[in-house]
Amino acid sequence: MRSFSHPAVWLVCLTLILGLASNTAQAQTTSKIDSIVALVDDDVVLRSELDLAIKGIVDRIRQQGGDLPPKHLLEKQVLERLIIRRLQLQRAHQTGIRISDADIDQAMQMLAQQNQITLMQLRQVIEADGEDFVEFRQNIGEEMMTERLRQRVINSMDPITETEIDILLASESFSGGEYNISHILIALPDGATPQQIGLQESKAKDVHKQLQDGLDFASAAISYSGSQEALEGGLVGWRDLNSVPAAFSDAIKNLRASQFTVPIRSPAGFHIIMVNDYRDRSQVMSTEFHARHIMVETNDLIGPRQAMTQIREIHNQLMDGQDFETLAKENSDDVSSANLGGDMGWFNPQAFGERMEQTLTALQDGDISEPFQTENGWHIIERLGMREKDVTEDSLRNTARTNLQQQKMDVEVERFLQQMRDEAFVEARPES
Predict the structure, then answer these.
(1) What residues contact residue 9 under an 8 Å CB cut-off, 6+ apart?
(2) Do residues 133 and 25 make contact, with C-beta atoms less than 8 angstroms apart?
């Protein structure tokens, strides 16, 4: 049930990169003599990698105030995560996925910006934590590779149709709120035998009994769950009932916070789901502006400086009382609005970038802006009006589309990873 809602979602997993991936690379130089804890097709996982990865997860659990699972269960889970990571990297290489230095540079810059520090300061933070910056960059690249591999799986899915959205919107359950949920999966292999099914069902019932007796859900997920979010304590996050399989939604819709389901059977295995929180849907309002503008485009013939000179001349003419509509028709390079005297109609300013939004917000109705620059060129804009529009219906439709995509993504990615694991040669030696 892991979410892969965006190609750049790997940034959200930075904590796990620090806890697993960077430790993995660091471990390769930790000791010249090392033991092998797993054979993964043509690759291996070393004991030092596993130990450092476990340390990273333990440190994170302690920082969050969670309960540590038994050591042997944690070791098993972390080793499985390392194996899956190895397999994904191998498959990515085999299918021609490559990450360039420029890709990694851009990702590092985004990471620094998100933390409101410079790239140099980011490097200092990484090295102060005892990490090698070059290895850290390598691990960022590997995480990007695995995410692109998953994205290929997602892109191969059939698109969501408008009919599917209409059916979902008409369903009774769509009018409900959203649930913050956590998840434990006791997985079944493809083509599981009756004996394997019975064994995993008994295990699921035992985990459920332990939860009833007071075992912390996050600790249980880390110890027993076979889902991709296991080492995050099973946390899935906020979901509409329609973004999870019907068997799950029926089981959780009447639960309150901290309550969990009995084991639920699916083709993937046996699931236990806990509700962490609930929230109602609310009305969605959007601020829209009515404006007209004049744009001088920058291109191979007109550079930014020349465009700036032209837009300033036009601004001076406006300040001298010349008609905005006439000047827009004569000078604006925006083909969609020039013939309308620059009239852009009503629109959400976010669609035109942050600078446009900031400029419009700072103006009053009837004000004409100073010239300002965007990636498309230089602009002058006149604010004609502002209104709050109810976009709840549009928002619900977008939510329905997202939920349907989420359902398919969860199933397809989980199936892909399980199939890849089943087809690979893996020999685990955790006692090494």
Answers:
(1) 3, 147
(2) no
Residues 263, 401: one domain? yes
Residue 247 φ/ψ, nearest 5 degrees: -65, -35
Residue-wise pLDDT for 253-308, tens only, equals 889 999 999 999 998 899 999 999 998 776 778 899 999 999 999 888 888 889 99
- Please list, residue by residue across 348-373, b when 16 or more beta carbons sit within 10 angstroms of its beta carbon and e when fewer do: ebeebeeebbebbeebeeeebbebee
Residue 134 per-residue DSSP state: H
List Cα–Cα distances, 197 to 188, 192, 268, 271, 345, in angstroms.
7, 6, 11, 13, 61
Q: Are the C-beta atoms of residues 48 and 34 closer than 8 Å to each other? A: yes
44: helix, coil or strand? strand
Buried b (16+ CB within 10 A) or exposed e, 159-181: ebeeeebeebbeeeebebebbbb
Q: Count of domains in the chain?
A: 3
Report pLDDT digits (tens) over 52-95. 889 888 888 888 777 888 888 899 999 999 999 999 999 999 99
In the structure encoding, which two tokens stand for residue 373, read together? 């620059």
Report residues of the chain scoring pLDDT below 50: 1-32
In 213-288, which residue ranges form alpha helices assigned H by DSSP?
A: 217-224, 246-252
CA angle 89, 95, 96 (to 5 degrees): 90
Residue 406's CATH number: 3.10.50.40
Torsion sign across C-alpha atoms 119, 124, 127, 129: negative
Whether residues 304 and 383 fall in one domain: yes
Residue where a domain terminates, one of 121, 155, 189: 155
Name beta bridge partners: 290. Answer: 346, 385
Residues 150 and 232 in one domain: no
Domain that holds residue 257: 173-282+394-428
**Inside any domain, residue 204:** yes
163, 397 contact by CB (below 8 A): no
